[in-house]
Amino acid sequence: MNVDVQDEGDSGSGQAVAFTVGENEEVHVLHPQQIIAYQGPSSGRADRLMDVKGMYRKRKLIRSDMSGPCRFVAALPPGYRVKTLQLNGKSDLLYDFRHLFFYSKGITMHTRVLSMKNMLVTRDIVKVKFAGNGSIGILTEGTVCEAELHPSDPLYVDAGSIIAYPENAKLELTVYGNHLASQHMSYHWKMTGHGPVLFQAGRQSRRFERDNNEDGIIKRFLREALPFGGVFIK
Questions:
Q1: Tell me: the pLDDT tens digits for 92-113?
Q2: How does pLDDT run across 183-224, given as a tens digit for each residue?
Q3: SS3 130
Q4: Mean pLDDT throughout 166-170?
Q5: N or C: which terminus of the chain carries fewer CB neighbours within 10 A?
Q6: Does 19 score more than 70 pLDDT?
Q7: Cα(first)–Cα(last) distance of the chain, in Å?
Q8: CB neighbour burial string for 35-73, b if at least 16 within 10 angstroms, e if fewer
């Protein structure tokens, strides 16, 4: 299978991703509504209702199984990209379902029900992980970064920027820094453990651009100087 990103620089209209699926290959697309063009036998696409351990029944999630030989194009919303990751064997990383775009034949997807503590921290019930040999595609907002966890030296990551983290990681929702710093930042995950953490840079980049373009100097000063100004001054 070949995945080709149709990129025109910083176009505000989003990207298109072209998939070429060979004979005896198959790819499972988790956002089939984004498929805008298809070339191949009509029988090459089979949509199925997904039941992620019963947690997502009300959302009626649909997965498209695309069998080769075929070629199709999927559209991405502005600001989003697809990053392809190769998997060989079993991965310890837990992903939020909404970040997943596709996975290839040979990969199996498993669900993990979070502990009550982690449910409160992540505001989610289920995460998914993968095993097998093949590729997965994740939806990201901007550049994907990676940092290694340490068992005792914590890593702080903006809570809204996390893509995946190891199942063994210990999480605590917090802020850090001095009094002024802690008042003017989003909540972060304080994370310890072993293994890599994946996070995205696009959300914070757009926030920076919005603040600079829309705010006058007085409004920006008040937001940064007043306690919890970032919450009350929009």
A1: 999 988 889 999 999 998 888 7
A2: 778 889 999 999 999 999 876 555 555 555 555 555 655 566
A3: strand
A4: 91
A5: C
A6: yes
A7: 46
A8: beebeeeeebbeeeebebeeeeeeeebebbebbbebbbb
Structure-token pair, residue 213: 């373009």
Tell me how far CA of residue 77 lies from CA of 27, 74, 84, 234, in angstroms.
Answer: 21, 10, 17, 25
Which sign, positive or negative, has the C-alpha torsion 209, 211, 214, 216? Answer: negative
Record the pTM: 0.77
CA separation for the pair 25, 32 (Å, rounded): 18
Q: What are phi and psi of 41, to 5 degrees?
A: -60, 145
- Tallying the residues shown for the chain, one arrives at 234
Q: Of 42, 107, 108, 105, whose CA–CA distance to 72 is shortest?
A: 42
CA pair distance 49, 98, nearest whole angstrom: 16
What is the spatial distance between Cα 119 and Cα 27, in angstroms, rounded to a whole number? Answer: 30
Report the C-alpha gap between 103 and 26 in whole angstroms.
Answer: 9
